[in-house]
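User: My instructor asked us to take a sequence, write out its structure as tokens, and then describe one feature of it. I'm not sure where to start. Here is the sequence I was given:
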Amino acid sequence: MPANTGGCMKKLISIAIAAGLSACLFAELNLKTLVNPKYYDELVSKGEVTVIHDDEPDTSVLFPNDETKKIFDGSRIKKDPKGYSYFYESLYYKSKAELTGGKGTVTLEDIAKVVRSVSKMQGMTYTDKNGKEKVLYDKAFMIASPDNKNPIADKNTGNANNQVSYSLQNDTKFGLCRYKINYYQTENTFYAVLNNIDDYKSLGVVGIPSQNLNFTVVAYDCGDGILVYLSSDANCRVVPTIKTQVPEAMTQRIKAIYNWFIKQF
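Assistant: Let's start with the prediction itself. The structure tokens for your sequence are:
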């Protein structure tokens, strides 16, 4: 063996280790750059953080600091000062190894396919206030347009940027609701916002009128992990029990969406 082979090997090993550390550092710094410093430590230690704006000024404090924030700010629900406003936002962070059980990795293309697979939301469950698991959507599928309630195949392939789709989801508490879904995709971010076409009703009483509710789902590829932002943004009518029903329902639905999401990998 030539005399300098050992030295070359040590250099190669050192370079490989340095490259690995740099990749980890980049992922960590990327996460730090995205997350509001006030909530970073809580997110890293607990894996999630939630902020609720219950009938109060509702400027987002959790939406990550990236280019899609302009889209988010531009699509916020306008609030009627005489109504009841509710804005629930959560951040979740999970390593790709945790998501897959160590069986592989997760790409942004995988995430884009999962979130656009509306038909797989059928049977999604949530936990009620008594701790009982219940079905959230007993019907869920894409439709060709708001005027056509017949199911079509999920449009879940290819780049999602600027895709507009429509869905029909039968909520077991609030009834049938169609949504307009706007999708956006960048190199490292997948973004979806669902806006209600139909009123949200309880016992025939309209609590959230058409186009006054957004569900937002955003996923960020942070190298070794995935950062997920979820929110519900509602402008509600002041009707009996609205201030108890909406907080309970939105909490249940955001948690249900996240739990469904992480089970898809």
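For the description part of your assignment, you could build on this observation: The first helix runs from residue 5 to 34. Try explaining in your own words what that tells you about the chain.
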